[in-house]
Design brief:
Layout: H1 16-75, H2 82-95, E1 106-107, E2 121-129, E3 145-153
Length: 160
């Protein structure tokens, strides 16, 4: 009868050389794991922080849209001015702990809420700089500004 494999396991004799080989193999496995860890941890950390920054950019984009909507909603009512709109946008962004440049935050274009007529469409643009709002300031972002535009119709003209 031909045996293809043996059920009984043959053990090598436990000599001093075999024990040394076993210890040496254990050390090389530990060294391999250390090198793998040293290579993979920075890569995984980079991917994790990159993902968090992408999520932060998405949060900024949505916050800019909502701030523009809130500001426009404030401005379309009777006797509301551009200052009321800017105050509402600032309040909204402060509630979300978003950094912004007060000088370039709101842009009203040609028409404004202060002198808008009844049923006149008025566009509000909200500008938020990305760099101060990210976890890892990056040269890739540079001077990226998140901008959101909302157009609403003035419900009532302001009365003097």
């Amino acid at each position: 009868m031909l045996r293809l494999f043996s059920l009984a396991k043959s053990r090598p004799k436990n000599t001093g050389e075999t024990a040394r080989r076993r210890r040496r193999g254990s050390r090389s496995r530990k060294a391999t794991a250390t090198v793998e860890m040293a290579v993979l941890v920075p890569v995984l950390l980079t991917f994790t922080l990159g993902t968090l920054d992408l999520c932060s950019l998405q949060f900024l984009r949505e916050s800019a849209v909502l701030a523009a909507y809130e500001g426009s909603r404030q401005g379309v009512a009777r006797n509301r001015t551009n200052e009321d709109v800017v105050d509402r946008v600032r309040q909204f962004l402060d509630e979300r702990n978003i950094s912004y440049d007060a000088n370039t935050l709101c842009d009203f274009g040609n028409r404004s809420f202060t002198n808008g007529q009844t049923l006149e469409p008025i566009t509000l643009a909200v500008n938020i700089p990305a760099a101060p709002n990210l976890l890892v300031p990056s040269s890739l972002v540079g001077d990226l500004t998140i901008t959101a535009n909302v157009t609403m119709v003035k419900e009532w003209a302001n009365q003097d």
